[in-house]
User: Fold these one by one.
Assistant:
Number 1:
Amino acid sequence: QVQLVESGGGLVQPGGSLRLSCTASGSIFSIHVMAWYRQAPGKQRELVATMSRDKTTNYSDSVKGRFTISRDNAKNKVYLQMNSLNAEDTAVYYCKIRAGSEDYWGQGTQVTVSS
């Protein structure tokens, strides 16, 4: 059984920063890709950023240049540093990993950007 737990969400003013973290635990054979998604009410879940095991990254156009994904393979952790936040970044952020041939999702952490 694999469990993912996100943390670091909260309320932040426009222009501010937050750092999200996600820890994977349980029986994990091999984590290939770690990723962050987000979903706002009434909107589809969207990909934010991904990082492969060799630390190759991909970002959505909406966050490119503002967000940075990183991972600690030894600790099975993935982070999302979010800078220059704006109201459009408000969403529940979900951690996802691909381990072996399976995908696993966290329960999400709320990020609210408001003045």
Number 2:
Amino acid sequence: QVQLVESGGGLVQPGGSLRLSCVVSRSIFSLYVMGWYRQAPGKQRELVVTFTSGVGTNYADSVKGRFFIVRDGAKNTVYLQMNMLKPEDTAVYYCNVQILVGGVPIEYWGKGTLVTVSS
């Protein structure tokens, strides 16, 4: 079992930056997949970025060059560094991880943290 605790959401101006944190209850190096999703008002949940062990990072086209996933093994934390924020980035952001148990992937979700980009 894995527990995820997200934080860092809030109100930020367009063009500003924000860093979201996801504290994981086990070593992040034991994770098969880690990443972030978001759900904007009136829209379905969408991928922001994932990192897959042994494969690499996959960013949504809408955030490439602006958002970056960062791992801190000492703190068991996965960050989403968001730069050059736009109003259309407004959404609830969810941390997502997968672990392998006997070779079978098991998925866990955080509760979400709200990011509002507005002047």
Number 3:
Amino acid sequence: QVQLVESGGGLVQAGGSLRLSCAASGRTFSSYIMAWFRQAPGKEREFVAAITRSGVSLNYRDSVKGRFIISRDNAKNTVYLQMNSLKPEDTAVYYCAARGAVLRTNPLEYDYWGQGTQVTVSS
């Protein structure tokens, strides 16, 4: 059981940076694989990044590699997505998600979801 709440979205100019946070309820945060997905209007929800329970293994979609950094602070029950060199194509609602074990990139395989936070990147 976990409740996820995203924050940190907003409007930024292309080339700028934004840091998203996802706060989890409960005391079992460290037991979950955490991930970020995003969905633009009229498009499918797509995988962005994920991190294992220990934080040792990371996975990113190709288009954000080198620009985005996922991290987690288990003591604070929080996962972060640092987004740098933002592009207009990054504009979407960003969702935090969690699953019990094994890193996956399919959103259907995640059990818990936050409400999403809007990220808008202007040209």
